[in-house]
Amino acid sequence: MSVQEIELELPDGTRMHVPAGETPLAVAARIGPGLAKAALGAKIDGVWIDLRAPLRSGGRIQLITARDAEAGELIRHSAEHIMADAVSRLWPQTQIDVGRTDHSEKFQYDLDIPVRVTPDDLPRIEAEMAKIIAADLPFEREVVPREEARRRFEAQGQTLKVARIADLPEDAEITLFRHGDFIDLCRGPHVQRTGQVAAFALTDLAGSYWRGDESNPMLQRIYGVAFARAKDLEAYNTRIEEAKRRDHRRLGAELDLFQFHELAAGSPFYLPKGLKLYQRLVQYIKGLYAKYGYDEVMCPQVFDADLFRISGHYDNFNEGMYAIPGDDGEELFLKPMNCPGHCLLFRSRKRSYRELPLRLAEFSRLHRNERSGTLHGMTRVRSMAQDDAHIFCRQDQISKEVQGVMDMVAEVHRDLGLSGVRVGVSTRPEQFAGSVEDWDTSERLLIEAVERAGHDCLIKPGEGAFYGPKIEYDFYDALGRAWQLSTLQLDVAMPGRFGLRYVGADGAEHQPAMLHRAILGTLERFIGIYLEHTAGALPLWLAPVQVGVLPVSERHEVYAREIVQRLCAEDVSAELDARNETLGYRIRSGETSKVPVLLVVGHREEEERTVTVRRRGRKEQHSMSLSEFERVLKEEINTRGIS
């Protein structure tokens, strides 16, 4: 092979040699004209490369077409530029800032538009976008010197772009992308032609401070979605309608679980039924403590700032904490997490290796100063509780403790019916505490644990916490959306920062390892996610109201009340519905309220000491003795049946 050539491997294993500097689009043309026409983008060894960018080294090449799942990312990124072009055509004085970095689900642009755009304007923008797409304009890529890029955007009056150029590293390659008369600063990649954006829709409007700084001017953000095929947009719209139906904020109101008020932004008010759900989750997790060897503790809500200086949160998480003025210049903070307090508990007295592992668990209220614009129902709150625990152990116990946490996670997910979970490891971020060597060792240990548990380990580069790498469980709900639930972090910093020590078998002092674990994560967030996943149809063992008892008429109410009292005495949440409404109305009301079991009792049931059982989501009903029903129901609750 000539030194001027590079070797490429195609997906089928075929190898081909091409001149260095040849583009992926030219490679596609070598394979066939049909592929060259259909190609949307390319990847080299799994990394995106624009079709028009020169290939500088060989590797495994993948040419992306509309048939590939990854095509959506390219199409949405390209639709982003088309949308900015359309807005500029409608309002020529528009200043264009930046788009979205993650195009896995949607696209967006932050724009300084001379008018206030409203939802009524979105059809106009869409119509202009349709014209640009119909013109089938080619996307052109150009590499230019920094000064030339700056001059071009200055000439256009695009001062926001000029500022963004100044942000780029000195050695950064400056790339511009053009379609028609529209040109933008962008790394790419993009599809070949505007016509390859087959289906799109603008979905939402929002405000966004320039550079995310509230002291800067407010820009207008326009969101949209785009797909390679019209049927994909139709499927998306169907999912959106289903998501609206499942929205936990809507369900929370309909099912009388929780509510919010503007005078306590980001802090849920739990109603009686919602508190039952909350408490059932807490009791369930606490019920596993004995099995997995946890001791429950409770730490203060307010700490001196010095605690967070020691832990590192003062420097790395200061904006997320609520400061409280104290006497004589004291600097106090509301507790945003439990780990520093647990470190104080560990070092409160001399520890022996015989005490390890020490597993401390805590349910208590935490408070974090989330920005008002990021608050979203139960999934992003300021007041929360976590099923939080910290494990202090010897170095030689780490693997066993990690496995113990993963076993606990597996049991909880099984009981909750959470399938389709993907497990990954988040690695060292740019800003981190501890040594690189400790991070490398810890990352390898966690990756090996995930693989040993039978999972394909997804690596999430740079997404670890500042104090250590973590195992993350990403759950895919009924709508295919990914949510991060359980986490397990191996702390490489805090034991040293707090000077934690235990006396080993050799009589010398040693530093313990420290694991952070959360099974459900933040309870508020989990409740929101789980409500949407189940569409509010919670399993019997978790449901706030487990059984609804419906007397056919007023003269059957005495027997109905007896049933409710018997069930409540067995710790079953039962409610009587003896409203002056028709039986059919009350049955429909129970079904709308997602009550798992409805019991209808009339003259025959009272005489025979039976109940007629209606299960949620089933048309058939059947009769059984009251005592047999109690036995079956308790068994199902105790075994945590999901049906």
The dominant shape is: globular
CATH topology of the largest domain: BirA Bifunctional Protein, domain 2
- Report low-confidence residues grouped into runs of 5 or more: none
Helix content: 25-40%
| Count of distinct strands | 33
Mean pLDDT: 93
Fraction of residues in β-strands: 25-35%
Distance separating the two termini: 63 Å
* Total discrete domains: 4
Radius of gyration: 30 Å
**What is the second-level CATH architecture of the largest domain?**
2-Layer Sandwich
Question: Can you tell me about this structure?
Answer:
The chain has 643 residues and is α+β, with helices and mostly antiparallel strands. It has four domains: 5-64, Beta-grasp domain (Ubiquitin-like (UB roll)); 71-231, Threonyl-tRNA Synthetase, Chain A, domain 2 (2-Layer Sandwich); 254-534, 2-Layer Sandwich (BirA Bifunctional Protein, domain 2), CATH 3.30.930.10; 547-638, Anticodon-binding domain (Rossmann fold). The protein is built from 21 helices and 33 strands. The strands form eight sheets. Strands 15, 19, 20, 21, 22, 23, 24, 25 and 28 form a nine-stranded mixed beta sheet that branches. The protein has a five-stranded mixed beta sheet with strand order 2-1-5-3-4, covered by helices on one side. It has a five-stranded mixed beta sheet with strand order 30-29-31-32-33, with helices on both faces. Helix 5 (146-155) packs antiparallel against helix 6 (159-167). The protein is globular, with a radius of gyration of 30 Å. The termini are far apart.
